[in-house]
Structures are given as structure tokens and as C-alpha cells.
Design brief:
The protein is 53% helix and 10% strand. The model has no long low-confidence stretch (mean pLDDT 93). With 176 residues, the protein is mainly alpha-helical. The protein is flat, with a radius of gyration of 16 Å.
Length: 176
């Protein structure tokens, strides 16, 4: 799934299906926020102190790692600038979308009791680990990623490269 369009939603409402659809929607919005970005778009930042669009995309990648690792109760190790410098924009985008897809696939059909075992585990560069319940994933990395995707959308409008006007957000589709 490239997230160019959303697939039909599940027929059944369950905790897992709801989280899966939330993450798929995140992937859809991220796909279109980053589709067709230029070097000018990637370099843009609204002030000297602000993150550029590219640095924001690196941050969203980190958030996608945390999101993908939580259902597996896997440790997310903080990335270094050196780790990130090895990735191109297209690799960052592909890996981020892949993390969203993996998360969605793991969550489909899961029952409420399964989410009690999902944990966010973050390891700092110093080796220290912090563990958080699944609830934090919703108001933490998922919400943060949505927030930053909105920034990219705003930044690209500022640089004169708005998102394809044929994207129909409400329906998760693109009119041709």
C-alpha cells in the first residue's frame, strides 16, 4: 500500500481496526503532504529557530519508528544525526510509510485486551530506557505526527507548491 488512496474501511468496529484506520489515515495524509516536494520546499523554514520541512520529515520518521515498535513491545532507540544523514528524502518517506503500514497490519482485528500489552519503550543515547502505556501513543507520537504533517502542508503552501487539489481528504481518495 502506497497510501496514495485509502482502502475501504473494515466492516467491523474493534479497537484494533480503529487504530489501524487511524494509522492508515496518518499515512494517507503524510503521503500527500510529502508528494512532489522540491528542494526549495524541503529547505523552507519559517524562521531561523524553526525546523525546516526536511528536519520535520526526519522527526516524523522517528515518530513512525515509535509507532511501529509499540505493538511489538520493541525498543525504539533514539536516532542520531549521523543515522539520519545516511537517508535520502525518498528513503525517509518510504521508510515512514512502511512503518505506518506495518503498524496498521499488526493492529487489524486486535481486541481491546491486546492493547494492554502494547508498550512504548524509548531508549536514549545514554542507554536509559523509559516505558509508557499504549495510551501515550495516541496523544504522543500519532498526534505529534499529525501536527507536523500539517506544518509540512503549510510550509509547502508558503513556498508556492500546494498539495494536489484533487485529494479528497474526507473520502481518502483522489479525483483524476
Amino acid at each position: 500500500m502506497s497510501y496514495q488512496e485509502l482502502l475501504a474501511p473494515p466492516q467491523e468496529y474493534s479497537s484494533g481496526n480503529i487504530i489501524s484506520r487511524l494509522v492508515d489515515s496518518l499515512g494517507f495524509r503524510y503521503y500527500w503532504a510529502t508528494e512532489g516536494l522540491t528542494e526549495k520546499d524541503l529547505a523552507y523554514k519559517p524562521s531561523e529557530e524553526a525546523m525546516s520541512s526536511y528536519v520535520t520529515i526526519e522527526h516524523i520518521y522517528w515518530l513512525s519508528i515509535i509507532i511501529a515498535n509499540a505493538p511489538k513491545k520493541a525498543t525504539s532507540v533514539r536516532l542520531t544525526a549521523d543515522d539520519l544523514s545516511k537517508l535520502t528524502f525518498n528513503e525517509l518517506k518510504e521508510k515512514t510509510l512502511d512503518n505506518f503500514k506495518k503498524t496498521s497490519d499488526v493492529c487489524v482485528g486486535r481486541a481491546e485486551k491486546d492493547f494492554e500489552n502494547f508498550k512504548i519503550i524509548i531508549q536514549g543515547q545514554d542507554g536509559s530506557k523509559k516505558e509508557f502505556p499504549f495510551w501515550n501513543l495516541i496523544h504522543g507520537p500519532i498526534s505529534d505526527a499529525l501536527y507536523h504533517i500539517g506544518q509540512i502542508v503549510s510550509f509547502r503552501r508558503t513556498t508556492g507548491n500546494p498539495i494536489n487539489s484533487n485529494v479528497k481528504w474526507f473520502f481518502g481518495k483522489v479525483d483524476n
